[in-house]
Write a structure and sequence with these properties.
The protein is an alpha/beta fold. It contains 24 helices and 16 strands. The chain has helices spanning 9-18, 33-56, 60-81, 85-106, 117-128, 131-153, 166-215, 226-243, 257-264, 266-283, 308-323, 351-367, 379-399, 437-447, 450-470, 484-488, 492-503, 516-520, 524-536, 553-557, 567-572, 577-592, 605-614, 630-640, and strands spanning 246-255, 289-294, 297-305, 326-328, 331-333, 336-344, 373-375, 404-412, 417-429, 433-435, 477-481, 510-515, 539-545, 562-565, 596-599, 618-619. The strands form three sheets. The chain has an eight-stranded mixed barrel with strand order 8-9-11-12-13-14-15-16, surrounded by five helices. A five-stranded mixed beta sheet has the order 2-3-1-6-7, sandwiched between helices. Strands 4-5 form a two-stranded antiparallel ribbon. Strand 4 (326-328) and strand 5 form a beta hairpin. The structure holds ligand C2E and magnesium ion (2 copies).
Length: 641
């Protein structure tokens, strides 16, 4: 396969597609050079064989003539060897024609043996020469014979023959002319067939080259595709083995690319991918390869790495370059990327293993908060095995009804009245014991199990809320956490409705907790889902507010009711003035947008008092209670009533 330098995606594919092999139809010497060389060798030997008996017989003039011809022929041979076919054929034709002409004149004229050479010369001229060479030779022969005839009959030069008639000259010429014309026609036919064949051949080679380019490049971005990336990697790995250097495979996935596609349309998404491709390609050296894996995933092969830090430096550059805004349809768009790095040979000896490991490392980068890169380490493989076990354990937990919901009470800060509860999932693994939701929820999201788990949480929360209402706990709003993955699937509203109907519960009793980043996408599909949820009459809260992008425009657009101040700020606010400042700012935002502010993670009275003073309406935290099993929660509420 052709190796093409890594560089710019556009020129890589385009130059290859544009490079066609030109076909020169006016070529004069279609016969292969080695054929010409063989013919010249044969002529050299033939002339030598003719000269030898003459030398032995002591005929010095013809011998000297033939030897001089040999010398010129030798130069012809040199020219043919240097592929200078035109010069070579002149160097064959000229001395031979001259020599033959002289031999005819000094010999027996039109009936000399040397005349037999003329058809051979004409055949040669037809095959290796062009029309001019052929006609020149024909005219020369006609003139030679005409001149000899005229000289003979005018008595200027008497042939040493008795029976020479005028028609001897014309007959010899006519025979020569017809023979050579016949050869000319045949040679031309052969010539044009060869040229046509050559054109066809080139065309096939051009098409093959084009097919090869298309088969190894991504049509949207012009970048090499996975197959070519693998080839490049294998080449780099082979070189690395020899030079004792390394290579690296970088797996890049754009963060939230789907949001761009959903909100700006696929054409804009495509344009963004092209811009991303160009930007990535500009970041690497010419012997590195940036390829597109498909979708919003790119693979980068780094060639000849002397140190691990080299890969880190390039990954850092790539992440930084991506984070600069892109201009799309007049809008400034920011996309970030998460990168995983696997090193050759430390993290795997073949492409597939490195790809898998770079992919794992990329997920790690995503989990660490995105817009970052992560090196692969062996623990990740162990994690994969552990994750697979956990996913199958969750599956059986669902089937065996092992998940539980605990409820953490929420309070109005003014009078410490219980206004509701947040439903928090709890799971005790049969062997590993209690598991934190922060541990298993991300796995459920990745494996798709979150749809079933989320549906169960909704149904269970609604069922419990109804049961408490019937038991006399009125006016409690139960907050249910919704994963971004659930929100992206457009049947969330349907699931909610089903759960409400099954429990016969009023929608106002449920509040859905979404995280900020979910709403940023601002896609039509998301808007439709949220509109349907709002139309049902549910409340919407923004969970962990302050940790995401904090773009305020969506708060109004999506008709949010509550902001939950992230517990990381609340817990530290009495010790850290920055955190206190953030909490104050969030409370002010909530108040100016007429939203309720709920502080999470209230652990002491001092914090509670400060929050109340700042104007925060609600709180939840260990100050009052952790999340409780339903029966305990019921007792907790009853005891405080
Ligand atoms: P979250 O929605 O922000 O939930 C609040 C977390 O803070 C809960 O952790 C809660 O137990 C904890 N917490 C409450 N008060 C305090 C406090 O005073 N101090 C401290 N240090 N922590 C406090 P938990 O139950 O471990 O849940 C963690 C996260 O897991 C939740 O964060 C939520 O994002 C997710 N999660 C929990 N249950 C579900 C669920 O049913 N569905 C989904 N999709 N996610 C859930
Ligand atoms: Mg929550
Ligand atoms: Mg939270």
């Amino acid at each position: 396969m052709t190796r093409i330098p890594g560089g710019n995606p556009k020129n890589e594919m385009q130059t290859l597609l544009e490079t066609s092999h030109p076909v020169d139809t006016s070529r004069q010497f279609p016969l292969p050079a080695n054929l010409l060389i063989r013919i010249i060798w044969a002529v050299l030997l033939g002339v030598a064989a003719t000269a030898l008996p003459l030398i032995l017989a002591g005929k010095w003039f013809p011998s000297a003539l033939l030897m001089a011809t040999e010398v010129v022929l030798f130069f012809g041979l040199m020219a043919a060897r240097r592929k200078r076919a035109k010069l070579a054929s002149w160097l064959v034709l000229m001395p031979l024609t001259g020599c033959v002409a002289i031999l005819i004149v000094v010999g027996k004229g039109p009936v000399d043996e040397a005349v037999l050479t003329l058809p051979g010369l004409m055949i040669f001229a037809s095959l290796f020469g062009n029309r001019r060479v052929y006609l020149t030779l024909l005219v020369f022969v006609a003139l030679l014979l005409g001149a000899m005839g005229a000289a003979h009959f005018l008595g200027w030069w008497v042939l040493p023959l008795t029976k020479v008639r005028p028609d001897t000259f014309t007959t010899v010429f006519v025979i020569l002319a017809i023979t050579s014309y016949f050869v000319w026609v045949m040679a031309r036919a052969l010539h044009s067939t060869l040229v046509r064949l050559e054109i066809e051949n080139k065309r096939v080679r051009n098409s093959l080259a084009r097919i090869e380019v298309l088969a190894h490049h991504d049509s949207l971005t012009g970048l090499p595709n996975r197959a070519l990336a693998r080839d490049r990697f294998e080449h780099s790995a082979a070189t690395a083995k020899r030079t004792q250097e390394g290579a690296a495979l970088l797996y890049l996935d754009l963060d939230d690319f789907k949001a761009v596609n959903d909100s700006l349309g696929h054409a804009a998404g495509d344009a963004l991918l092209r811009d991303v491709a160009a930007r990535l390609a500009a970041c690497v050296r010419s012997n590195d390869t940036v390829s597109r894996q498909g979708g919003d995933e790119f693979l980068i092969v780094l060639d000849g790495l002397a140190t691990e830090d080299g890969a880190g430096a390039i990954a850092h550059k790539l992440v930084q370059e991506l984070a600069r805004p892109f201009s799309l349809n007049g809008l400034e768009i920011t996309v970030t990327g998460s990168l995983g790095i696997a090193l050759y040979p430390a993290n795997g000896g073949d492409f597939e293993t490195l790809l898998k490991n770079a992919d794992l490392a990329m997920y790690q980068a995503k989990e660490a908060g995105r817009n970052a890169f992560h090196f692969f380490d062996e623990k990740m493989n162990a994690n994969v095995a552990e994750h697979l076990h956990l996913v199958s354990a969750m599956r059986s937990a669902l089937a065996n009804n092992e998940f539980r919901l605990h409820y953490q009470p929420q309070f109005a800060l003014a009078d410490e009245r219980i206004v509701g509860a947040e439903a928090l999932i709890r799971w005790t693994h049969p062997e590993l014991g209690p598991m934190a939701p922060a541990h298993f929820i991300p796995l459920a999201e990745r494996s798709g199990l979150i749809f079933e788990i989320g549906a169960w949480v909704l149904q269970e929360a609604c069922r419990q809320a109804k049961a408490w209402q019937l038991a006399g706990l009125n006016d409690l709003v139960i907050a249910v956490n919704v994963s971004p993955v659930q929100l992206r699937r457009d049947n969330l509203a349907g699931e909610v409705q089903k759960a409400l109907l099954a429990a016969d519960l009023a929608p106002r009793c449920i509040s859905l907790e979404l995280t900020e980043s979910m709403l940023l996408a601002d896609s039509q599909a998301l808007r439709d889902t949220l509109d349907r949820i709002r139309a049902l009459g549910l409340r919407i809260s923004i969970d962990d507010f302050g940790t995401g992008y904090s773009s305020l425009s969506y708060l109004k657009r999506f008709d949010v009711e509550r902001l939950k101040i992230d517990q990381s700020f609340v817990r530290r606010m009495t010790q850290d003035t920055n955190d206190e400042g953030i909490v104050r700012a969030i409370i002010q935002i909530a108040s100016s947008l007429h939203l309720e502010a709920v502080a999470e993670g209230v652990e002491d009275r001092q914090t509670m008092a400060r929050l109340a003073q700042m104007g925060c309406g609600y709180g939840q935290g260990y100050l009052w209670s952790p999340a409780l099993p339903p029966e305990e929660f019921f007792r907790f509420v009853k005891d405080r009533a």
